[in-house]
Design brief:
mainly alpha; Cytochrome Bc1 Complex, Chain D, domain 2; 2 strands
């Protein structure tokens, strides 16, 4: 084997070369053993083996391997591949591969927070989102409100989406998907075709393009932090203005909102079974995730149970969404001993690794009886 100078002379080589070389070496099990190091030391300090005990380990990454790792797209669009995609194609890709998690119109459904919303024509004109400013009462910060560069959308979708098959989209499909999102946010018209040739012009219409602040001292080793302690930190005045409220009779009209939120992710609903909190804004408020007490729902139809417990947000009946379809689960485990007990345990305890590395979070709010009903239905083929 050839030498591997990429690891020990990293400052002379691109980071991508180093990363690829490390992966090649580790994946091939080529790191030296304790015996190899001992043998090199015994050879004496003047020998070539003692000076470079790694001399015969691994190899340089090939140009093709480096290109496979080097896929990032920068705000100046360096690294952006050639290609194009229309809004109409993006709509097709979106509905087939994105809407199950992000909603048909980017409004989310129950899996992730919204991508589109909260921006206006005025924001596009000035490049700063009004709803991000202090005093705004907009209910939730969306992706299009916060993201400053269109390259961020392109890069993230290209490397990480769709969630269950990252890096599976072609360059043209990524362009089309970004175009569809931008159209939903009224940044580009419905007949627009986004490409590497016009993306810089589109950047000039991003609603929050002027929303990022570059603080130069943070980029210097001897620079100062950006915290000046000018904000009030003690006995601060309380803003008494009530911007919105629900009458008491309507507070719990649709059940406890806190229990209707997923147990993963950043969004937590208010506990509507109790009166609104009266603590002043100067006190820290801790909101712990709620695990709904186990109780038999009384439902006997497994299809109603999987809907009531939001199982269908991640699992289709016969197709994979985020997790596998119910019939796929049945087919994979067909003939397994104690299959019903196994599936019931997976429902309540969660797991990872059976259908890939996307974890299924535990569902402890599902009672043992309901989990058994769902498991029995899946084991029988989910028909």
């Amino acid at each position: 084997m050839n030498a591997l100078p990429s690891i020990f002379a990293a400052r002379r080589r691109p980071a991508a070369t180093l990363a690829a070389a490390l992966v090649l070496t580790a994946s091939a099990g080529l790191f030296p053993t304790t015996a190899a190091w001992a043998q090199a030391a015994a050879a004496g300090p003047g020998s070539a083996a003692a000076a470079k005990p790694w001399h015969s380990i691994g190899r340089d990454a090939t140009p093709a391997e480096v290109r496979a790792w080097d896929i990032d797209v920068r705000p100046d669009f360096k690294g952006l591949p050639k290609g194009s995609g229309s809004v109409s194609l993006g709509e097709q890709v979106w509905e087939a591969k994105c809407a199950s998690c992000h909603g048909v119109f980017g409004e989310s459904n129950e899996v992730f927070t919204p991508i589109v919303g909260g921006t206006t024509a005025a924001d596009i004109e000035r490049g700063r989102v009004k709803n991000l400013e202090e005093g705004s009462t907009f209910p939730q910060k969306t992706t299009m409100m916060k993201v400053a560069t269109v390259s961020t959308l392109w890069d993230y979708i290209n490397r990480a989406m769709p969630w269950n098959a990252p890096k599976s989209l072609t360059a043209d499909e990524v362009y089309a998907t970004v175009a569809y999102i931008l159209n939903l946010a009224n940044v580009v018209p419905a007949d627009f075709v986004l490409s590497d040739q016009n993306i810089a012009e589109v950047q000039k219409r991003m609603p929050n393009r002027n929303g990022m602040v570059f603080y130069e001292p943070l980029w210097r080793v001897d620079g100062k932090g950006d915290v000046q302690n000018v904000a009030c930190m003690k006995d601060c005045p309380i803003d008494p203005k009530v911007r919105s409220s629900l009458p008491d009779f309507a507070r719990d009209a649709h059940g406890n909102i806190q229990e209707q939120n997923r147990v993963i992710g950043p969004v937590r609903g208010a506990d509507t079974t109790r009166p609104p909190r009266a603590e002043p804004l100067t006190q820290r408020i801790e909101i712990a995730p709620v695990v709904v007490a186990q109780a038999n729902s009384g439902l006997s139809d497994p299809r109603l149970l999987v809907n009531a417990n939001s199982c269908t947000a991640c699992h289709g009946m016969d197709k994979k969404i985020v997790g596998p379809g119910f019939t796929e689960i049945a087919a994979k485990h067909a003939g397994k001993t104690d299959l019903e007990a196994y599936l019931a345990g997976k429902i309540q305890q969660g797991g990872v690794g059976v259908f890939g590395q996307i974890p299924m979070p535990p569902q402890p709010q599902v009672s043992a009886a309901d989990a058994a009903t769902i498991a029995r239905w899946i084991a029988a083929g989910a028909k």
